[in-house]
Design brief:
Layout (H helix, E strand, L loop, with lengths): L9 E7 L2 E6 L9 E5 L4 E4 L5 H15 L3 E5 L5 H4 L9 E5 H20 L1 H14 L6 H16 L10 E3 L2 E5 L4 E6 L9 E5 L4 E3 L5 E2 L11 H12 L5 E3 L2 E2 L4 H20 L20 H17 L2
Parallel strand pairs: 4-5, 5-6, 6-7, 11-13, 12-14
Antiparallel strand pairs: 1-2, 2-3, 3-4, 8-9, 9-10, 10-11
Length: 310
């Protein structure tokens, strides 16, 4: 990345002329990936990171490279690592689905206020982790400490900025350089996940519908079967580059890999229903955050039990 645009929060990846992914650095204020697109007459930001210091760098980078002000921001879903940087773009149109808007409005005010009131607690926890560094030099621990430092730095001035425009199912933005289609097939990872598709570039910004070379995160709201259905629909589209919510840039192969992962986890959990822990296949050993596999299995187990009662 050009030193002029270096950031401790992300690595800039040029996907096409005027299309960039910003890949989160571990232990930074970004947490999740984001990106930006030049339509020729306006600039679209896709997701805004976990902190305003990371999103400030994102806006600076986008406007310097494209040489045009950001006009439109997309929130792919309601999770904090994709929307807490919205305040950097208060002067822009911020668009999401109705479900994403509702979840942000209902959940984040209490969550943010609770963290603001507990900055001392967060600081104490971070210091306890720093004390552990004397016994361990693990990179994971260092990244965790750095992420907490970024969180502490963000909280005093953090404010929740909600989307000010909503869309239903799909909307297309047209420009002299390219068009961009924003759409949702509903919820898979979250209760509603949006994708930004650039047909002429064969690029899709997929948010947390896609994880590349890292274990995906399941939540109580996740629907594994619908997640697979959504990935199948996207995989049939003309895509060469898929920008994930977490991990490195991907392709259709990575979409298929995640579909297989979810299908495997469902069948494996169903088969080993009575076991405390499901053994993780060795093919996933090299993926980052392997500890998430067991947590995913537990959530899948609960999901299977709930669906069996319906």
């Amino acid at each position: 990345m050009n030193p002029e645009f270096s950031s401790k929060h992300f690595t800039l990846k040029k996907v096409r002329d005027g299309v960039y992914a910003t890949i989160a650095k571990e232990g930074s204020g970004s947490v999740a990936n984001a990106g930006f697109v030049d339509l020729g007459d306006q600039v679209i930001i896709f997701d805004t990171f976990n902190t305003q210091q990371a999103s400030d760098d994102l806006r600076y980078c986008a406007e310097k490279i494209i040489n045009r002000p950001v006009t439109l921001v997309v929130n792919s879903h309601w999770h904090g690592d994709h929307i807490r940087g919205n305040q950097t773009f208060k002067d822009c149109a911020i668009i999401s689905s109705q479900m994403t808007f509702s979840k942000m409005k209902d959940i984040h005010p209490k969550r943010i206020n609770k963290q603001k009131k507990d900055i001392r607690g967060i600081s104490a926890y971070r210091q306890s982790l720093e004390n552990q560094l004397h016994q361990s030099d693990g990179d994971k621990l260092k990244h965790q400490i750095n992420s907490l430092i970024e969180l502490e730095q963000s909280l005093p001035t953090l404010e929740l900025v909600l989307p000010n425009q909503l869309y239903y199912k799909e909307i297309t933005f047209y420009g002299p350089k390219r068009s961009a289609k924003l759409f949702t097939f509903g919820g898979g990872h979250s209760q509603c996940d949006s994708v930004l598709y650039l047909p002429s570039d064969k690029v899709a910004f997929m948010g947390d519908l896609l994880f590349v070379n890292c274990h995906p995160t399941f939540f109580q709201e996740s629907n594994p079967e619908k997640w697979i259905e959504i990935l199948k629909k996207i995989e049939r589209m003309d895509i060469e580059v898929a920008v994930p919510g977490h991990g490195s840039l991907g392709t259709k192969k990575d979409i298929l890999t995640l579909m297989n992962y979810i299908s495997h986890l469902i069948s494996k959990t169903r088969k080993d229903n009575n076991k405390e822990e499901v053994v993780m296949p060795t093919i996933y050993n090299e993926w980052t955050s392997p500890e998430i596999y067991q947590e995913n299995s537990k959530i899948i187990k609960e999901w299977l039990i709930l669906n069996s009662k319906q």
